[in-house]
Amino acid sequence: MSMKLPFFKNKKTETNTLNDLDNIPQHVAIIMDGNGRWAQKRGLPRVAGHKEGMNVVKNIVKAATNNNVQILTLYTFSTENWKRPKSEVDFIMRLPKEFLHTYLPDLIENNVRIETIGEFGALPEHTKEAIQYAKDKTKNNDGLLLNFALNYGSRFEIMRAIKQVMTDIEDSKLSLDTLDENIFSEYLYTDGLTDPDLLIRTSGEQRLSNFLLWQLAYTEFWFTDVLWPDFSEEIFQNALHEYQQRKRRYGGI
Ligand code: IPE
Ligand code: IPE
Ligand code: MG
């Protein structure tokens, strides 16, 4: 077990971790939605919601660690989000650096490993630099995997995989006969990761918005009307608890 720094330390550990340690979702994915509406409700610019949402990320990383979740995948920016006004996109692209500047030392102390899925190369230089630094610094950590879906789109991911598969077949690195679901999965950004067990979406929307279409085939979904900046460790805990009551059948009986 790694040492825990104060912001990870829970005064009320008993109430903030699950009593039933069975059946904890190994991989939790979250569509963190509702930042803009949270700000607008308060008469603030939309970006104020993104800023507030950033601090919630820290709390949920803590909660995931405390509850023994192994992988936390956070939908941070979709390939469709480039459609937004440039000022909003620019603001969002500066948040990873700000987040890491504030929290990276604690994340390192708590053995968190940082990774991303999505088209990393197309991000602004300053965003890439900050995240790459964090990836390098945490690459040997074996605690929670904190996986940011950044410039991520599932259809693009699948198309990209198909193109790579075809190239590998042409180059005789892969044969059509051996290609199966497991091998195909290795061509996705999520290569090496188990599929999410639990998907949470905040803000009342009940859609996937191009998130992990392949990987969510048998994932349990959990929706809440709470807007992301109002999301809390308690609500996260409720979602985990409800997950524990679900019966996953995978088509069986
Ligand atoms: C989620 O909140 C954050 C991103 C998509 C980057 P939104 O910005 O989508 O907030 P709403 O849905 O407009 O309220
Ligand atoms: C999904 O939220 C993307 C992220 C949370 C990063 P959106 O707000 O972009 O989704 P739509 O447009 O409501 O489907
Ligand atoms: Mg939204």
UniProtKB/TrEMBL annotation:
Tell me the GO molecular function terms: transferase activity
Q: Which residues bind substrate?
A: 34-38, 46, 50, 78-80, 82, 84, 201, 207-209
Q: DNA-binding: present as a keyword of the record?
A: no
UniProt keywords (A-Z) are: Magnesium, Metal-binding, Transferase
Q: Which domain of life is it from?
A: Bacteria
Q: Where does Mg(2+) bind?
A: 33, 220
Q: Which residues form the active site?
A: 33, 81
Required co-factor(s) are: Mg(2+)
The cross-references to InterPro entries, in alphabetical order and at most eight, read:
UPP_synth-like, UPP_synth-like_CS, UPP_synth-like_sf
Q: Which residues form a coiled coil?
A: none
Q: What is its EC number?
A: 2.5.1.-
For this chain's record, the cofactor binding note is: Binds 2 magnesium ions per subunit.
Q: Belongs to which family?
A: Belongs to the UPP synthase family.
Task: Identify the PANTHER family for this entry.
Answer: DEHYDRODOLICHYL DIPHOSPHATE SYNTHASE 2, DEHYDRODOLICHYL DIPHOSPHATE SYNTHASE FAMILY MEMBER
Kindly state the subunit structure of this protein: Homodimer.
The function of this protein is: Catalyzes the condensation of isopentenyl diphosphate (IPP) with allylic pyrophosphates generating different type of terpenoids.
Could you tell me what this protein is called?
Isoprenyl transferase
